[in-house]
Write a structure and sequence with these properties.
Blueprint (H helix, E strand, L loop, with lengths): L1 E6 L4 E8 L3 E9 L1 H5 L6 H23 L8 E7 L3 H18 L3 E5 H7 L5 H6 L4 E6 L4 E8 L2 E6 L6 H11 L7 H9 L23 H12 L5 H30 L3 E5 L6 H13 L3 E3 L11 H12 L22 H6 L1
Parallel strand pairs: 1-4, 4-5, 6-9, 9-10
Antiparallel strand pairs: 1-2, 2-3, 6-7, 7-8
Helix pairs in contact: 2-3, 4-11, 6-7, 6-8, 6-9, 7-9, 8-9, 9-10
Fe (iii) ion binds next to helix 4.
Length: 346
């Protein structure tokens, strides 16, 4: 089954074709970073309009690279939520129309399920990575620990009370004067920072539980930055101290979640999953526990069409179908998704 995947939940237009027999055939991404940089953050209406401009040309490019015609497609998957309503509607409208005109099924994919399944785009992970496992989703809008009992069968174990991990990276970067979007830049600086010169708290690790809170950390960084000499090296050292606090906190809660769910496999996905120190720490943690950890390749940690094509292909194969109406769910609880096993048995 050859599935076209379309991602337009925020400020990235992503398109891919996943073939259930031959794997990922092609993927293209257009980032709107330059468009929003001027405003220091994503402007929803500008995002929608740019998806309108870029989506159809990207579909053409992706099909050309796959060596396919539109009529070779067997299904279309698109991000139906969560995300910006206008941006989602562009993807849903185009995806639904393409499917309708071709007479093939369409399916609306949960963006975070896309992130969660992205490690499975690697053929070797498909052999080794099987539920049950614990997933750490760390992105611009989410920080969640999820017990994955099966594909589509998700239990939320922990969530953030305020900022998401990626949001904390972006906001911390901004308050030290780094340009938008600062998260990856801050991580880059942290690589050259001195470990231990700045020590920030590990929020909510001194009590039991799997909840997160990152907004206080931002304030600590602001105080440290304002009271410092503000040299380039100090900026790197503060970045390092901040990153270590986030990485430590995430690692501690992953351990707790693995214990609570009695699992020895961890999946890490979402933009912050591209962070080198986080990857190294969790790799070390899982080897100490004699378990395994799986990450998407860095390019598939952040938003992309491939993860949507893949998640959609699994759901279409299991028989899930979307009606002809064009609907999106800007807010959408992952635990409400139908488990794949239930779809197959119906
Ligand atoms: P969501 O998926 O929750 O809707 P999103 O789609 O905006 O949010 P992603 O595209 O998954 O989020 O990830 C973007 C986030 O990842 C940004 O906040 C960015 O700062 C962060 N990020 C990307 N690379 C790194 C890195 N190397 N280290 C830390 N953070 C990173
Ligand atoms: Mg983005
Ligand atoms: Fe995302």
């Amino acid at each position: 089954m050859r599935v076209l995947g379309i991602e337009t939940s925020c400020d990235e237009t992503g398109v891919a074709v996943f073939d259930t027999e031959n794997g990922l055939l092609a993927h293209h991404l257009f980032s709107q970073i330059d468009l929003h940089a001027l405003y220091g953050g994503v402007v929803p209406e500008l995002a929608s309009r740019d998806h309108v401009r870029k989506l159809v040309p990207l579909i053409r490019d992706t099909l050309a690279e796959s060596g396919l015609e539109l009529t070779d497609l067997d299904g279309v998957a698109y991000t139906a939520g969560p995300g910006l309503v206008g941006a989602l509607l562009v993807g849903a409208g185009v995806a639904r129309s393409v499917a309708w005109s071709l007479g093939v099924p369409a399916v609306g994919v949960h963006h975070m399920e896309g992130h969660l399944l992205a490690p499975l785009l690697e053929p070797e992970a498909q052999e080794r990575l099987k539920p049950p496992f614990v997933a750490l989703l760390v992105s611009g809008g989410h920080t969640q620990l999820i017990h994955v009992r099966g594909i589509g069968d998700y239990e939320l174990l922990g969530d953030t009370l305020d900022d998401a991990a990626g949001e904390a990276f972006d906001k911390t970067a901004k308050l030290m004067g780094l340009p938008y979007p600062g998260g990856p830049l801050l991580a880059q600086l942290a690589l050259e920072g001195t470990a231990g010169r700045f020590k920030f708290t590990r929020p909510m690790t001194d009590r039991p539980g799997l909840q997160f809170s990152f907004s206080g950390l931002k304030t600590q960084v602001l105080m440290a930055w304002q009271q410092s000499d503000q040299t380039a090296q100090t900026q790197r050292d503060i970045a390092r101290g901040f990153e270590e606090a986030v990485v430590d906190t995430l690692a501690m809660k992953c351990e707790r979640a693995l214990d609570a769910a009695d699992c020895d496999t961890l999946v890490v996905a979402g933009g912050v999953g591209a962070n080198r120190n986080l990857r190294a720490r969790l790799q070390q943690l899982m080897s100490e526990r004699d378990g395994q950890v799986h990450f998407p390749r860095p390019a598939f940690c952040t938003d992309n069409g491939a993860m949507i094509a893949y998640a959609g292909a699994l759901r279409l194969l299991a028989g899930q179908r979307q009606g002809p109406e064009i609907t999106v769910q800007p807010r959408w609880d992952m635990a409400s998704l139908p488990p794949l096993s239930k779809l197959t048995s119906e």
